[in-house]
Design brief:
about 160 residues, Double Stranded RNA Binding Domain, four-stranded antiparallel β-sheet, about 25% strand, 3 helices, alpha+beta
Length: about 160
């Protein structure tokens, strides 16, 4: 029998299960991702930072294995693949990076926030377009404009009288 209780700390959820800690990343109230699904890599970033920019790996890149993720439903995966296909590599991993801040932890949180936005956007159901017909008044306006335009063109024609 497993006993667990959630512990929240800086936008992360840690589940303590029988003396082992499983780190979770909450997306919304019903979806959480485990750290096992996400691979973080760190590298040197561009931009300001003075001498520090050449020494510290502050750029964060997230590789999320979308194909084998068990945290989200298949229809959400399909929506993410169709909307974010330019960010998915040949291995089926969604790649996000951040180098806006000088600190690594802020870039990490920025990457997680980008991932949350992508998943929440995929959860939204798009409204289907209802086909409508033009109104009688709009048809009449179109015909009136055509008549005016035709009349204007006819006045431009040169008429030769003998």
């Amino acid at each position: 029998m497993y006993f667990y209780f959630p512990v929240y700390c800086s936008l992360r959820l840690y589940l303590i299960i029988q003396n082992s800690i499983l780190s979770m990343i909450p997306i919304n109230s019903s979806i959480t991702l485990t750290d096992a699904e996400i691979e973080l890599t760190f590298s040197r970033s561009q931009g300001p930072g003075g001498q520090n920019v050449n020494k510290v790996n502050s750029k964060v890149t997230i590789h999320w294995d979308l194909k084998y993720s068990t945290s989200i439903a298949a229809f959400i995966k399909r929506r993410i693949q169709s909307k974010q296909n330019n960010r998915i590599n040949n291995d089926g991993k969604l790649v996000l990076s951040s180098q806006q801040h000088r600190e690594q932890h802020r870039n990490r949180e920025d990457c997680f926030q980008k991932l949350r936005v992508i998943i929440i956007d995929a959860l939204k159901q798009r409204k289907t377009r209802r086909i409508s017909r033009p109104t009688r008044a709009s048809k009449q306006r179109r015909l009136d404009n055509k008549k005016k335009h035709s009349h204007r063109k006819s006045l431009r024609q040169q008429r030769f009288t003998d």
